[in-house]
UniProtKB/TrEMBL annotation:
Superkingdom of source: Bacteria
Native species: Pseudomonas coleopterorum
CDD domains, A to Z: Precorrin-6A-synthase
InterPro entries in alphabetical order: 4pyrrol_Mease (IPR000878), 4pyrrol_Methylase_sf (IPR035996), 4pyrrole_Mease_sub1 (IPR014777), 4pyrrole_Mease_sub2 (IPR014776), CobF (IPR012797)
Listed name of the protein: Precorrin-6A synthase (Deacetylating)
């Protein structure tokens, strides 16, 4: 039997990791680090920093592989399915080639494995197909939503108010009915611009928890252009951007 630990490591700060997750790190014989390319090298650098802080040197080995890219195309769901199929093949090869029977492998997942991440679904499918004797455990982490609200010193919900987590693509249809707070993730097109004039506040953050953190907030109509400019500058400077934001109806 092989074991795989799926460990949430928080949204960017090396101290976001929980005590439970830190203990789980100590059980791992081999860590899989999926490299997203030169521009995103800081992501694996942070992963290695976490390992140095919370594990015993020499007690584990690291295998770093290039993560497959999502193919281009207008059908987003289909392209994600292709990406996850490619990721699954990578995981299966790593489990076959790098993990001996009785050993424990670990995957460090940004934020929490249950929120907008495919790792858990992929591993669940691998374990369910019966080809490999694989057990897996999941350790929660600080989500990007928690990091964002903490950075802005706000609550996630208003009193007795409903919250919805969505994507920039879905935001194009407008604020959902019956919801006064929306958290938006995976928005590459500045979807909040479609909601100007709707009496909303926005709390935006990029690279939250890291040394590159950028925060902006205020009435959406007043700060939207500033956020667009900040996103463009951040992407130009770093080659990539990892951001999210919260929209709330003004009272």
């Amino acid at each position: 039997m092989k074991t795989l630990l799926i460990i949430g490591i928080g949204a960017g700060h090396p101290e976001h990791i929980t005590v439970q997750a830190a203990r789980a790190l100590g059980r791992v014989d081999v860590f899989f680090l999926l490299d997203k390319g030169e521009h995103k090298g800081k992501l694996n650098a942070l992963r290695r920093d976490i390992l140095e802080r919370h594990t015993t040197p020499g007690a584990y080995r690291v295998v770093e592989v290039l993560q497959p890219e999502r193919p281009a195309g207008s059908d987003y769901r289909a392209s994600v399915d292709v990406l996850n199929t490619r990721k699954r093949a990578v995981f299966e090869q790593l489990l076959d080639d790098e993990v001996a029977d009785g050993e424990c492998a670990g995957v460090l997942v940004w934020g929490d494995p249950s929120l907008y991440d495919s790792t858990l679904r992929i591993v669940e499918a691998i374990a369910a197909d019966g080809v490999r004797a694989l057990d897996y455990e999941v350790f929660p982490g600080v989500t990007s939503v928690q990091a964002l609200t903490a950075a802005h010193r706000i609550t996630l919900n208003s009193i007795a108010g409903a919250v919805q987590i969505t994507t920039g693509r879905r935001l194009a249809a407008g604020m959902p009915d019956g919801v006064d707070t929306v958290v938006v993730m995976l928005d590459a097109q500045d979807g909040f611009l479609a909601l100007l004039g709707e009496n909303l506040d926005i709390y935006w953050g990029a690279y939250v928890g890291t040394v590159d953190e950028v925060l902006l907030s205020g009435r959406l109509d007043d700060v939207a252009k500033m956020i667009v400019q900040a996103r463009q500058e951040a992407r130009r400077r770093h080659g990539w951007i990892m951001d999210s934001y919260l929209l709330r109806r003004r009272t």
